[in-house]
């Protein structure tokens, strides 16, 4: 047995190998999001209760009836296949080191989400909210805002990712309404805090790993996410593993028509650790290439992340000091990305 340190504490591991069973629906339930697109208040309350139970338990869930068109998802996966098939020189022209705000391409092993490991075996391309260089927040030095980088001569890639990002921002708003209800807050409580969100879209490509695999070098090392929540689209190749409350790794395999949603560290801080920001990793032992599309949704740069009124009592005082969303994400990025840390040190 060993322990795994995360953004929100230390959890003991019972199984340290890379093989694991599929999670049960009690561990990672399927939540029907349809009521959030209706005016049925009773159905929304029922959904909110189920959502709260999932977030207090595993911090992971599947969502169905999310209203994101399948053609948008398919087009983004197709765009990822095409982009990662380009030669390395073409991809490196938009390397993240050329962006002050962590947008663009990163190659195999350049990211290290688990500081005890040897680098993550994937390549990625990141975009976020498109903010022009002359925007007052960019001029003021809020480095997580800014323009995206785009590969020259790949208009279909840009169009697919921009459309997907817009759909995810829309879906993120509906999910925030559900989270507010689950926290006994007004449905629109978070709306004013996500008018200019720190919302990052990432496309990922994982090569297969064969034979004996070093658990210090896998697709993505064990980590918790930094933002409020993540919405993940997976292709048909399984790789996602979640650390359950018993300290066991369980698989969150793809379910057709569903996204995986997980709580991130900012939501855990907002809820005073009522909602669980759960450790997870990706291990691609399928013998096939794998692609996935995570979307990380967080509040505006200057939003103060502190324990919500409904999550603090005399018996449960606030556990974390208040911090702005931008400062929190900047700190976590600097821990994970060497190029980002170097850029900040130069400023």
Can you tag this structure with a few keywords?
alpha+beta; 347 residues; Jelly Rolls; 22% strand; 5-stranded mixed sheet
Task: Give a structural overview.
By secondary structure, this protein is α+β, with helices and mostly antiparallel strands. It has a single domain (2-346), classed as Jelly Rolls (Sandwich). Helices cover 28% and strands 22% of the residues. The protein is built from eight helices and 17 strands. It has helices at residues 41-57, 70-84, 88-92, 136-139, 155-182, 265-270, 325-336, 338-346; strands at 2-6, 9-13, 21-22, 30-32, 60-64, 104-106, 123-127, 197-206, 220-223, 229-234, 240-243, 249-251, 259-263, 280-282, 290-300, 304-305, 323-324. The strands form four sheets. It has an eight-stranded mixed β-sheet. A five-stranded mixed β-sheet has the order 3-12-11-14-9, with no helix packed on it. Strands 1-2 form a two-stranded antiparallel ribbon. Strand 4 (30-32), helix 1 (41-57) and strand 5 form a beta-alpha-beta unit. Helix 7 (325-336) packs across helix 8 (338-346). The longest helix is centred in the middle third of the chain and has 28 residues, at 155-182. The chain is globular, with a radius of gyration of 19 Å. The relative contact order is 0.19. The model has no long low-confidence stretch (mean pLDDT 91).
